[in-house]
Specification:
The chain has a domain at 1-63. α1 crosses α2 (39-57). The chain has helices spanning 16-31, 39-57. By secondary structure, the protein is mainly α. It has two helices and no strands. 37% of the residues lie in helices and 0% in strands.
Length: 95
């Protein structure tokens, strides 16, 4: 495992800024076009993409969270107790 990143569906702390900048850029580019995107936002977007590439390549070190659990613990299975039947087919006289 090159970069353990915690539980599935989470973003490591080292990548929060990159994820935010990429999401903001994509949201603005899809909703309003180029007039909503400043040069600074475009630079942050490109830096965020570079950071994600570095994480994927393993050149950016991701420190696992303190509560890192590589395998998600399973909850105990429910125990269903089937009650003993008091009535059997022969017990239904006259029903």
């Amino acid at each position: 495992m090159r970069n353990p990143v915690g539980l599935s569906g989470t973003i490591p702390e080292e990548l929060w800024d990159a994820a935010r900048d990429i999401a903001a850029y994509r949201f603005l580019s899809e909703s309003g076009g180029d007039e909503l995107i400043s040069k600074a936002r475009e630079i942050r977007y490109q830096a965020g993409e570079k950071k994600l590439r570095e994480a994927a390549e393993g050149t950016l070190k991701i420190v696992p969270p303190e509560n890192f659990a590589p395998v998600q613990a399973q909850s105990p299975s429910p125990k269903i107790k089937v009650p003993k039947r008091r009535y059997q087919p022969g017990n239904f006289d006259g029903v």
